[in-house]
Each structure stands twice: as structure tokens, then as C-alpha cells.
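Contributing new records

If you add data, match the layout below exactly. Sequence lines come first and carry their own label; structure lines follow with theirs. Keep one chain per record. Anything else will be rejected by the validation script.
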Amino acid sequence: MLVPVVHPSGRHPVSDERDLIAVGRSTLYELMAAGVLKYIKLGRCRRIRRADLESYVASLAPMPH
């Protein structure tokens, strides 16, 4: 079970979110570039709101067993 670090700003570094949904760095950046995953850009850094990540995960179809 992963326990996320709660950032006071409510925005999380890409590396934190990548670990939470178990995808690679490139995949996460591809999702952001395609507009599938929303993010906020602060200078050269990208931050993902937890609500946006949860919304993306909720939109995924479950895989059959």
C-alpha cells in the first residue's frame, strides 16, 4: 500500500504521482502532452493536483481478470 506525501499546496511533483499510479516517467509526460492528464507548470516544474490524478484513474476502464 502506498502512502502519499501530502503537500500543503495540493500539487505534487511528477515523480510522486508517477510512483502512485505505477507508470514510467515517459508515460506520465506523454499523458500530460496529449492533454489526457492535467497539470500546472510552475517555472520549469510540472505539478499534478491530486484531484486531477484521481479523475484520470477513475476514467480508466478496469481490466478483466
